[in-house]
Specification:
Blueprint (H helix, E strand, L loop, with lengths): L3 E7 L10 H13 L2 E10 L9 E6 L2 E9 H20 L10 H19 L7 E5 L6 H7 L5 E5 L7 H4 L5 H7 L5 E4 L2 H14 L3 E4 L2 E4 L2 E7 L6 H8 L2 H13 L4 E8 L6 H14 L7 E8 L6 H21 L7 E4 L8 H7 L2 E4 L9 H8 L7 E5 L12 E3 L4 H12 L3 H17 L2 H12 L6
Parallel strand pairs: 1-2, 1-5, 2-4, 5-6, 6-7, 7-10, 11-12, 11-14, 12-13, 14-15, 15-16
Antiparallel strand pairs: 3-4, 8-9, 9-10
Helix pairs in contact: 1-16, 2-3, 3-4, 8-12, 8-13, 9-12, 10-11, 10-14, 12-13
Length: about 450
């Protein structure tokens, strides 16, 4: 039985409940094979030498956790610079926010080389390697250069933009060529897969061999769409746990005379938060019956606040909230409750369950699991309505949500009004179909589909 080796920027202990979705998805396979999870330790060593970092190995039950420290220079260039200053904005279609500094790509290559070197010493000949996300695109190429012949898969958790946007990245050819070092490359959506197909054929001269296999640079790579899901049963159990029930009862009592609209995400320019707040203000203007009867709770958790673009976004959101509350608010009612801090995951299901409408309206998103969590948390007898951006990867699966264009402020406001007025029978029918979809394509389905496609022979 092959051992599973998972590589991601950050590593989590799969035994811990708060470890996150990737740990939930991969924990079973890692435990069954005595697997290895490798990545950055989260430690930044001031004064450390670039391209060097100490390796730490610890045992977490049956899983080995291996992490590497980064120097301050490498962290600034690899993580803040290239990963989050170039790839994140470009892959979310925001060329205007990208910072194309040649030093960033040098650090990105250097850290991927460092990680590959540290991982090579831990690999066994029959290991199956699964590398995750945009931080580590060239890692397989670095491993191959060191003689690694293992089967290696890659999954991109964020969207892949069209050819013309990708081609704006300096040295984009090198970046995309690195994907041909993998045996399997996975994307969140069919749309992302189409962008990859068009790019490699137009820019790299790849030959399409059928079955989403492409030949270029003397290698053949298979690509596919593997939309990630959630653990529906686990999230449903959270919904009925004490913390979530307490949140539900408290919010239900406090807003017994209001209809709650809810937005939950990290503070990020890809999430369309300014557009959402403007849409809610438009809703109040166009449909004044919602004044005093509808409240938007918007949670925007802190994220990358050491980067200037996020500071600007925070200030814009605070200004928009203040203007709407000032123009429409009453002594006993505020239109928007804006929360800029983390809300414990165990309390979120109760908040989802009490909401009449969830607003999941990113400008661009690889998948967006909040949409799926909202569905899992609903009371089937009286479910809320999901208003979902057509530009979220989840829109390909969740066709029974109300799909919107978040750039169309008036049109989205009209759709929200429709959601607020939707009859119970229609809400139940839509929820039933949405719940069936996320159950069939949950996080365990995602793991099995990808590992089977990679040729993994262990317990998927």
């Amino acid at each position: 039985m092959s051992r599973l080796v998972v590589v991601s920027n950050r590593v989590a202990d799969p035994r811990k409940a708060a470890a996150g979705g990737l740990a939930v998805a991969l924990g079973d396979s890692l435990n069954a094979t005595g697997g290895l999870w490798f990545g950055w330790s989260g430690n930044v060593i001031e004064g450390g030498a670039a391209g060097e970092g100490e390796l730490h190995v610890q045992q977490a039950g049956n899983v080995k956790l291996a992490t590497v420290d980064l120097s301050a220079e490498d962290h600034a260039g690899y993580y803040l610079g290239y990963s989050n200053g170039v790839l994140w904005p470009v892959f979310h279609y925001r060329l205007d926010l990208a910072r194309f500094d040649t030093g960033f790509i040098e650090a990105y290559r250097r850290v991927n080389r460092l990680f590959a070197h540290k991982l090579m010493s831990l690999l066994q000949p029959d290991d199956i390697i699964w590398i995750h996300d945009y931080h580590l695109i060239p890692m397989a190429a670095e491993l191959r250069a060191m003689g690694c012949n293992n089967r290696i898969g890659f999954f991109l958790h964020i969207p892949l933009p069209p050819q013309q946007i990708l081609a704006a990245i300096p040295q984009h050819e090198w970046l995309m060529r690195a994907l041909f070092a993998y045996d399997l490359v996975g994307f969140q959506s069919e749309n992302d897969l189409l962008h990859f197909s068009r790019y490699v054929q137009a820019e790299a001269g790849a030959v399409a061999l059928g079955g989403n296999r492409f030949r270029a640079f003397h290698r053949t790579v298979r690509a596919g769409a593997f939309p990630i899901g959630i653990d529906v049963d686990e999230f449903a159990a959270l919904t009925h746990a004490q913390d979530a029930r307490d949140m539900y009862e408290r919010m239900k009592e406090e807003y017994s005379r209001r209809k709650l609209l809810l937005g939950v995400e990290r503070l990020d320019y890809s999430k369309g938060l300014p557009q959402r707040l403007k849409t809610f203000e438009t809703l109040l203007k166009k449909y004044p019956e919602n004044i005093r009867s509808a409240t938007l709770i918007q949670i925007a958790s802190p994220s990358r606040e050491d980067m200037g673009t996020y500071t600007d976004l925070l200030q814009e959101l605070e200004s928009l909230c203040g203007a709407t509350n000032g123009n429409f608010g009453e002594l006993d009612w505020m239109p928007i409750r804006y929360i800029h801090r983390n809300v414990a995951r165990k309390r979120l299901p109760g908040l989802y369950r009490v909401a009449r409408v969830a607003l999941v309206t990113p400008l661009r998103d690889g998948m967006n699991l909040v949409a799926k969590e909202f569905i899992a948390a609903q009371d089937p007898a009286d479910p809320g309505v999901l208003v979902l951006s057509r530009f979220a990867g989840a829109a390909e699966q969740l066709e029974d949500a109300l799909l919107v264009n978040p750039y169309d402020i008036d049109g989205t406001a009209d759709t929200i009004q429709r959601a607020l007025q939707m009859p119970l029978e229609e809400r139940q029918a839509r929820h039933q179909k949405l719940l069936k979809n996320i159950r069939e394509h949950d996080v365990h389905w995602w793991r099995r589909e990808f590992l089977n496609a990679l040729g993994y022979e262990g317990p998927a």
